[in-house]
Amino acid sequence: MDSSAHKFYPVHGFDSRDHLETYFSNKPDMVFGDDTMKFPMECLHRAFSEGHIKEDLLIDISIGSFIHHLYTPSGYFKQILVLKCSEQCIMEVNKWINTRTGAFDWSHIMEYIKCTEGNSDQCQDKDMTLKTAITKIMKCDIEKENLTDPEVLPPADCVISASFLDLISKDQDDYINNFRKFVKLLKPDGHLILICALNTTYVMVGQDKVHVFRYDEKFARKVLTDEGFVIDHCAVQKKTAVSDLIDYEAFMFITAHRE
Questions:
Q1: Chain centre distance of CA 114
Q2: Residues 174, 196, 172, CA angle at the centre, nearest 5°?
Q3: Sign of the C-alpha dihedral, residues 20, 23, 24, 30?
Q4: What are the residues facing 186 on neighbouring strands?
């Protein structure tokens, strides 16, 4: 990584509202919807509707301030804990939960929910279900073995993460070390869901070019199996957007569990 050309998320952060507007909004010129919203939400619906992933506690540790990937799992868990690296991200999510002025508008997500779940009558309840399910938003520190030190969280039945490891890791060894800290949040027989962009080296957020650790599907699978996980499902969708804001080749969705 050329640190002079790329910002490093754990050190420099980025503007979480710019990130939302660029990659998750409903603006006419936002070209990433099929990759960043439709694809993962279809995969999540498929994964949870099979009935294998549910129970009490879900921990989400994802980059930025997006929450759309939690709509589907909120119907399967009693509580969701959200971990974020920055106060700005925590503030952004809290604004949405508390329906404050200036909160990001996620209403366009209901169209994706209708497409994936096919039940428009329940869409109005989705916001409240998710807001009620999120019981805590905490800051995490990736430098510590216990990411939420000094607080120790109860082990989760499921951990879901979107792009987090990709932006906090500099190389393969760093990714593996971060992964090992990350999965300490799980119960011994817990489930893990990873959503990521493959073969990516940067993402533009505003004027900032932010480093992304580049890896392929083979590497991701090897890390999981080497660390004792069984891969239940893996789906890869080739890039559909045409843009120089981010140089990914495909989006990947993986569900796995430890036996």
A1: 21
A2: 20
A3: positive
A4: 156
Nearest to 163 by CA among 253, 53, 103: 253
Separation in Å, CA 174 to CA 183, 189, 199, 213, 223 = 14, 25, 16, 10, 12
Pick from 185, 183, 137: nearest CA to 175: 183
Torsion of CA 78, 113, 97, 153, to 10 degrees: 40
pTM (2 d.p.): 0.94
What is the average pLDDT value for the chain, to the nearest integer?
Answer: 92
Other beta carbons within 10 Å of 189: 10
Q: Which of 127, 129, 122, 120 is nearest to 106 (CA)?
A: 127
Average confidence (pLDDT) over 107-112:
89
For 12-28, b where at least 16 C-beta lie within 10 A, e where not — what string? ebbbbbebbbbbbbeee
